[in-house]
Amino acid sequence: MEIHAQVTTEVKKIITFLILLFFLFDQFSAVEVAGMVTQTEMEERIRVSLEPESCDVVVLSEEDRKYGVVIVSRKFNDVPLVKRHRMVNDLFKDELLSGEIHALTITAKPLP
Hints:
By secondary structure, the chain is α+β, with helices and mostly antiparallel strands. It folds into two domains: 1-34; 39-110, BolA-like (GMP Synthetase, Chain A, domain 3), CATH 3.30.300.90. The chain has helices at residues 2-34, 39-50, 81-91, 93-98, and strands at 54-61, 66-73, 103-110. A three-stranded mixed β-sheet has the order 1-2-3. The N and C termini lie far apart (87 Å). Residues 1-30 form the signal peptide. One of its GO terms (cellular component) is mitochondrion. Pfam families: BolA. Belongs to the BolA/IbaG family. Keywords: Signal.
């Protein structure tokens, strides 16, 4: 009877561990899938806000969440480079703060 109680206790511990492991894995997977901003979403956000003549978004490293953008817009005319970069960074502020976007390489040119 004592051995049966010990086995039952060990089985309960293993089941509890497996449930906890499954829960943690499920949460991690949901963050990875739900937390990825897409190239299309980035392009759309840039188009709506900056009305560019041209806009290219490149995934430099999906694994490392690194992106590059090249934007040519009238909204950059007579705007200093630092402010142009700030305008683009502000579009992705939440993603940059959360780590969803780790790095964003920006080329922001005024329309000639």
